[in-house]
């Protein structure tokens, strides 16, 4: 891996050069809520904010929009169907390590046959530039082994004394820097970046008291129903945890028809397993009709089902769900509560 140093001015030139060629999405301050940030299409490099803690909605929206049109259709002989897939290259900048890990997790999930062609097509047209973060009390990425994630970024930026250490992770990243003025990173620059990461880790106060495999076994063993019901008594089933999660990938589809009922479009939209109607099937049977069953399912999906399938939990420790929860249900606190309860049961067995 090659590393270079860019001054703030050189980094700005890099973003200006890229934006002259293609659209760029990145974190910028919300106009309606100063101090809060969201990933959006940028009008100028000056809108891009690299020193931020988190965004409400994760950058997966660049590849999997909350609402997207899949295709249009029209009655006829034969019927007409036109797929709608963007093909314009773009840049996704300012992606934190936890969100890079989430994108990699979704790459794996959406590549399982039959692969999601829309996700893969959107991923192929993107250049990803990651950047290191400023954690808060909700972050627990060190417990999830995502604090230093780099895949699948092309370039990664870390603030240092001389500006920014720029790691090159792919040929695409190398090409992006080809005509940009830069310095070769020296030993002191590498040490500065390492010190930044160390200080970041020291600021992360939320920790898990159990490892992934042990927690998966607790979930697999079942039981602990009183705790699930206790948590569910606080839950509003609003779905905020799912819609802010960088690794949730469930969706629903629906059709919109024109007034003649002869043509229309099909859309897909993010869905949430915490909504009461999510598991509703024909005959109004609901596989998870009770709120505690839906709450339990969320932890099982993140830390058992997908962990067994992909050998990693589908949680990156970003803390978004805990920040967004209107009932103040904290992902890490629940994991530690379940682990403690399981240990107590074993000690009394």
- Structural shape: globular
In DSSP terms (H or I, runs of 4 or more residues), the helix count works out at 11
Q: How are the strands ordered across the major sheet?
A: 3-2-6-7-8-9-1-10
pLDDT below 50 for ≥5 consecutive residues: which ranges? none
State mean pLDDT (0 to 100 scale): 96
Alpha-carbon distance between the two ends: 52 Å
Helical/strand content category: alpha+beta
Largest sheet: 8 strands, mixed
Radius of gyration: 22 Å
- Order of SSEs: EHEEEEEHHEEEHEHHHHEEEEHHH
Number of strands: 14
Secondary structure: helix percent = 25-40%
The total tally of domains equals 2
Strand content: 15-25%
Description:
The protein is α+β, with helices and mostly antiparallel strands and 349 residues long. The chain folds into two domains: 2-203, no CATH class; 212-347, no CATH class. It contains eleven helices and 14 strands. The chain has helices at residues 8-21, 97-110, 117-124, 171-176, 187-203, 212-221, 225-234, 240-243, 291-310, 320-324, 331-347; strands at residues 2-6, 24-29, 37-41, 67-74, 80-83, 90-95, 126-131, 155-160, 163-168, 183-184, 251-257, 263-270, 280-281, 285-286. The strands form three sheets. The protein has an eight-stranded mixed β-sheet. A four-stranded antiparallel β-sheet has the order 5-4-12-11, with no helix packed on it. It has a two-stranded antiparallel ribbon with strand order 13-14. A hairpin with a 7-residue loop joins β2 (24-29) and β3. The N and C termini lie far apart (52 Å). 33% of the residues are buried.
